[in-house]
Amino acid sequence: MDPTGTPASSTVNLVKTIIGAGLLAIPFAFRNDGVVIGALLTLIAAVTSGFGLFILAKCSKTLINPRNSSFFTLCMLTYPSLSPLFDLAMIVQCFGVGLSYLVLIGDLFPGLFGGEPRFWILLSSLIIVPLCCLKKLDSLRYSSIIGLFALAYLSLLIVTYFAHDTLLTHDYKSYRGEVCWFKVYDFKGLLSTFSIIVFAYTGSMNLFSIINELKENSMANITSVINTSITISTAVFLAVGICGYLTFGSNTLGNIMLNYDPDSTWVYVGKLCLGSMVMLSFPLLFHPCRIAINNLVVWSEIHFKKDPIMPSQQAQARSRPGEGSPIRLSIQDEDNESLAGFDNDIESVDGDDTQVIRGNNVETTPFPNSRFYAISAILLILMYSLALKVKSFAFVLALVGATGSTSISFILPGLFGYKLIGTDSLAVGQSISPRDRFYKRCSVLLVWYGLSVMALSFYVTLAYGTD
């Protein structure tokens, strides 16, 4: 399929991937952290997550064909034996959050229109299933735009209520609790809500699809998409977090919408927007989950079925000098014609593109139509079946965030960056540039940061639960 993504549509999809229903919990994080500490944690999360996305994008440019980038291809180049674990982390993250969205639909719509949760969960399939059957992430740009309008309404609602009920009146003192600007309101709460802000920026699961589908997927364009998306997300998180917290102070609830008058028409429309946003966010999580499962299938075929292609590839890799690192002349915006001197054989199986590893040349992972729809059907049936039975699994979701989100946002980008950045220079006999050396050192720091966040999140979840 030809790439159709533009910087604008890619930014829309990335922002929508980052900002989800968790936005409404940001004011609660500020309630425990205080305004200054909450804002500081938000900025730290923005910088670290944005750097993780940038490192992933830079690593994709070490491939001969950057449009074949994915977690799977980079894993097969760097840590092939761990590839299943990395894909499993992606599956756990996307499956867990997607399942929580279906449960949220069952909790939300009965309060708006009546009926049973099971009815609304099943009814949502009329919208969700067709969107999940789209093959390209860029095809979801229109639904993402609708979701962004819903997010914009919710954000505007929270900011407007703050301006009207707090800045323009003195009555707020009767319902607003204590407000902390420079001190932490609740140290126990600071730990228990730490992951809310850190995990709010998780968007790397769709980054490679965005890179592969961009018409002009130069590093400059990709960096622009990442920077714009992180900037927009940070502005929304800070606006909603600070305004929501300053409206209700220490009385702020875990879902800020529960603080507002349920009889208000504006709040009613806001809850309707929340329900719409959740439904339109589900396909953005389903897309990378399906890809990760396909990667596991391909990995199993290679390793357990003893694919005959692999021995010859390994022999060629050993016999060719200079193929111990990814082959690319430089990380620039040039076309692949400059690589014409390298052997770039591509195999084909039943007319579908297939995964080929020649030295470090990783080609497109096979995803035939039959497997695409089979995985989609099995995933949807499983997720809907569980959503109809599960009442609450916040504890499990917290563990999912501690493992899946941290792995794909910090640990994996750091590992890839340390292993791959600069190898394009080494492949042509040049030394690694000072800038790339800096990125490699920062990649190591990102790994340790991710491990620290994972350990702390596990501790918080086990010690304090999700109350």
From TrEMBL:
Residues 4-454 form the Amino acid transporter transmembrane domain. One of its GO terms (molecular function) is L-tyrosine transmembrane transporter activity. It is a multi-pass membrane protein. It comes from the Eukaryota. One of its GO terms (cellular component) is fungal-type vacuole membrane. The chain crosses the membrane at residues 12-30, 36-57, 117-134, 146-164, 191-212, 224-248, 268-286, 370-387, 393-421, 442-464. It is found in: Vacuole membrane. Keywords: Membrane, Transmembrane, Transmembrane helix, Vacuole. The keyword Oxidoreductase does not apply. One of its GO terms (biological process) is regulation of sporulation. Belongs to the amino acid/polyamine transporter 2 family. This is Amino acid transporter transmembrane domain-containing protein. It comes from Torulaspora delbrueckii (Yeast).
